[in-house]
Structure formats: C-alpha cells, structure tokens
Specification:
alpha/beta; Alpha-Beta Plaits; 11 helices; 2 domains; 301 residues; elongated
Length: 301
C-alpha cells in the first residue's frame, strides 16, 4: 500500500480533531478526501506527511511508519498545503533550486528543475519572482516543489482553491497526468473536480470517516426509494395513479418519470404487471442516482 492509516487520532485539549480513522490507498489511485470545514482533513494530511504527530494510532507511507521512520516518509511524499508556503522574493528557478538542495538532489537538481518547469507549464514565468505571479502560477510552483524529488505519493490540500475556471482545468489536467504514475490524495470542496479526477472518495465528518467508496457506489446512497422509469410513449397521470406502490411521481424528462416508493423491488414487479395490463412498453428502469453534492450533504449533516 502507498498509504495505510490505522486508527489515527489527533486530540487538541478536549477536542478530537481526528477520531480513530482508518483507510488505505494503492499505487496509481487518485483519491478525493472530502469533508466540511473543520472535519479533520488538513489535520489528517499533516499527520500522514509527518508535519504533526498523531495522538494515537499509526500511518505508513510506502511501508515506512510516519513516527519510526519520518525521514524515509518525507523522501517519498510530495506535499502541497492549503496555504501554499512560497518565498515571494525568490525567483521561480531560485526557489526550486533551494528546494532541490533540501532534498539533496545534487547533480540531478538542474535536470529535475527543468523537467518540473516543463511539466507544470512554468516555462514563460520561470524568470520571474514568485510574488509577481498569478495565483494559478503560484499553485504550479507549489506543485513543482512537491514533485521535484520524484515522490511516490502526492498529498494535495485544496490544490485548486481560489483559482479561476481556466486555471482549475489546467491544474486538474496536471494532477491527472501526475496520477498515472503516483498515488494522489487530494482535498477539495469542488465536487466537479472530484468527479473529474478521482476514482474513489473518502468522506470525513467530525473527525470520523463516514464513507469510503467509488463515486458511482456512493451515488446510490439512500436512493433505494426512487425509480427512474422511461416509457416508449407518453403515459397519462391517470394510469400512473394506478401504481399502488408508488407514493408519488414526477416528470423527469421526455417520457420519463421518477417514482417514489418505500418498496422499490416490489414496485419493479408491479410496474411490469401494470405495463402488460395496459399495453405499455417500458424503455428503461433504474434506481435514481443522486449527485455527489447530495450524498455529501446526507453523510455530513
């Protein structure tokens, strides 16, 4: 496993910021780490990177314990915090050279710096001071420093926060490109970004993991009470009222209805019998799929 978190807990005084959470990430996964503000996302990321120690529990990165082998963990992790800590008076190449010296890249430093500048699209801005760059390019510098030492794991805390739509797309495409070879754990509040980038999401609320699954599976949460049914022809409301197990119905599109029910499987059977009795052709039938935003609200309220 690239990341293994076991019963990880962080307590500040009387507050449990992170409460006994566990999860694993495999190599090549891009996993969204979601939760409302104050849920414990940034605290968890800081513990995994070795920035702060856990109160209880354990975590491993590429097989190395974050407390027993912190330097080995740091060698294998690239970290972009939510507040991107850049030196604004430094030039882009100067800052990356400084970062390379911290990682002791030696003779490989110049080559890696140019590779990261090319990968993150910083070529036209590399001669400028970081403080003069737009927020999008500052984020690129942050990503470049996180990847400079070629880590196996990337932990990105709100990497697209405050960016305009064009910058968000650029950073998203960059993360997707990176994720082909590395393990990425990223935190974000933008659900469209999660769906575009992530194969799986972990949702945390009040310091606890409340969901850990593929996005498609999570969208089925609490949706068993509604069926989306499509017909070959328009169906009258009078006919739909004959369905005893449908507590209500509403139009969902051309020849398509959402039927609410407490017994979806029994409603499926009733629909088939009803269709035969009324010479109605059913074109499609499926459980209603909720949006990721709806699932997030349900699990974190």
């Amino acid at each position: 496993m690239s990341i293994k978190v076991s019963s990880l807990t962080k307590i500040y005084g009387t507050q449990k910021a992170v409460d006994n959470i566990s999860f694993e990430l495999k190599k090549g996964e891009i996993v969204g780490f979601l939760g409302p503000n104050g849920a414990g996302k940034s605290t968890t990321m800081k513990m995994i990177t070795g920035y702060i120690p856990p109160t209880m529990g354990a975590a491993e990165v590429c097989g190395f314990d974050i407390q027993k082998s912190p330097m080995e963990v740091r060698k294998r992790v690239g970290y972009l915090p939510e507040a991107n800590p850049l030196y604004y008076d430094m030039y882009v190449r100067e800052y990356l050279a400084f970062t390379a010296s911290i990682h002791r890249l030696g003779k490989n430093a110049k080559v890696r710096i140019e590779e990261m500048i090319a990968l993150t699209g910083l070529g036209k801005e590399a001669h400028k001071k970081i403080g003069t760059l737009s927020k999008g390019y500052k984020q690129r510098v942050g990503l470049a420093q996180a990847m400079l030492h070629d880590p196996e794991v990337l932990i990105l805390d709100e990497p697209t926060s405050g960016l305009d739509p064009n910058q968000i797309i650029e950073i998203r495409d960059l993360i997707l490109k990176i994720g082909r070879e590395k393990t990425v754990l990223l935190s974000t509040h933008i659900m469209q970004e999660v769906q575009a980038m992530c194969s799986r999401v972990i949702i945390i609320s009040s310091g606890k993991v409340v969901a850990d699954d593929a996005i498609a599976n999570l969208k089925q949460v609490n949706t068993e009470g509604s069926l989306v049914v499509g017909f070959e022809k328009e169906v009258s409301d009078q006919l739909l009222h004959q369905l005893k197990l449908a507590s209500s119905f509403k139009k969902a599109g051309d020849k398509q209805y959402i039927l609410a029910t407490e017994k979806p499987e029994e409603l499926r059977k009733e629909l088939m019998q009803w269709a035969l009795a009324n010479d109605i052709s059913i074109a499609s039938m499926k459980a209603e799929e909720r949006s990721l935003e709806d699932v997030f609200r349900t699990l974190t309220n």
